[in-house]
Design brief:
163 residues; mainly beta; Purple Acid Phosphatase, chain A, domain 2; 5-stranded mixed sheet; 32% strand; globular
């Protein structure tokens, strides 16, 4: 079960469309972790499950929870949990909701953080990552016994190395 995760597109349309077209035949879900800055009725936005970011005008919900292969996945932007400083607040927020996997944005920095019985994943920004070069998104492949997470470059669609 593949899930494509993007965040912080800040009005970009072409990149959202290209990512969708590239994976539409293999991914079950397309997730946007906020700062979309497009109308909820925009055709490209309709292809993604979206949450509000701090730059969005509260058109989407602030968080979204869904269930895939016995795992609860929480989608949230993360600005209310101060993710630019620490992940503890996000972790405890997700723990209260029973999340196994958390998809978040806001920092423009791709990460995979395993904490106890939870995985926190930031796909980075498809507009521009901060502190490092490039733009990125993530693909999560969930199987019954494993979770594989990889980040990809928005332009080349090659593996994106997280430093």
């Amino acid at each position: 079960m593949k899930i494509v995760v993007v965040s912080d597109s800040h009005g970009l349309v072409k990149e959202l469309e290209e990512i969708y077209i590239k994976y539409k035949n293999e991914a079950m879900y397309f997730i946007h972790c906020g700062d979309i800055e497009l109308d909820d009725n925009h055709p490209v936005v309709q292809k993604y499950k979206c949450v509000n970011g701090n730059c969005d005008e509260h058109i989407f919900s602030n968080e979204l929870m869904f269930h895939v292969l016995n795992r609860n996945i929480l989608v949230i932007h993360g600005h209310y949990q101060s993710v630019k400083y620490k992940l503890n607040s996000l972790y405890y927020h997700a723990l209260e909701r029973g999340a196994d996997i958390v998809l978040f944005g806001h920092t423009h920095h791709p990460i995979i953080h395993r904490k106890k019985d939870m995985i926190l994943i930031n796909p980075g920004s498809i507009l521009a990552n901060r502190g490092i070069r490039g733009r990125s998104y993530a693909i999560i492949d969930i199987k019954h016994n494993s979770i594989d997470i990889k980040h990809y470059d928005v332009v080349t669609h090659q593996l994106y190395k997280i430093k």
